[in-house]
Each structure stands twice: as C-alpha cells, then as structure tokens.
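Go through the following before class.
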Amino acid sequence: MSLALDAADTIQAQDGLEKMLVHQMAVLHCGMMRAAARMNEELDAADVIDANKREAANVRACRLAGAISRLSATYQQGLLTLQRKRTGGNQQVTVKHIHQQVNVTQGGQAVVAGDKVMSRTRGRRRSNGGGMVKNER
C-alpha cells in the first residue's frame, strides 16, 4: 500500500480517479516484480539434471513470462489512460522548419535529407527537388 500511496504522490494525482488508477498500476508493478522473481527461481530450477523436473520448471517459467507480459501491457495501458485523461485525449504536434545552407565544393559530397549531393562540376544531373545535385550512377 505504501508503494501505491507514494506513486500517487509522485505523479501528483489530481483527483480520486487518478489515485485509483495509480494504485492499480502499483499493484500491477508489484505483481510483475514477484512474477519475475518466481520465474527466475523456476529458471534456476531448470538447471536440474532430471529431464522431467527440467521440463516442468521450464513450462512454469514460460507461463510466468506470459503473465509478466500481460501485466506489463496492462501497466502501459494504465500509463496511456492517465496521459489521455490529463491531456483530454488531444495530442499537439509542433513542426518547426529550419532552413540550412549546404555548400558542396568541386569533388565533394554531402548528405541532405537522405539524398547524396554531388558538385555540379562533376557532370551529374539535377534531382527533381530543390535544385540539389544527385549522383545518378
């Protein structure tokens, strides 16, 4: 319970719904850590010489790995839910255009936006975009 309370304080839960969500996520985290420890014990037990015991330990470890995977996915969904609640489900993207000047001297090369740029004095043709010179070999 102390982990859940600490997590709610850490994220500065804004209301009861966020507190409940974070408490659920703390329970998921504890479950994942316990399952991971148990899986490691089973993997250590799989080192036993007896083939029957090895196979049984391996099966239990695989089942625990699946459970850990599901717990992890649920935990991540909780994080996304918290983010959507706080942002209202809206996502803001800011695109910033930066103009760059590139000089390519005779015999030189440069990579600009994924295109290989060659100097015009080497007899290369222009590419379709932006007047850049592109190696056409």
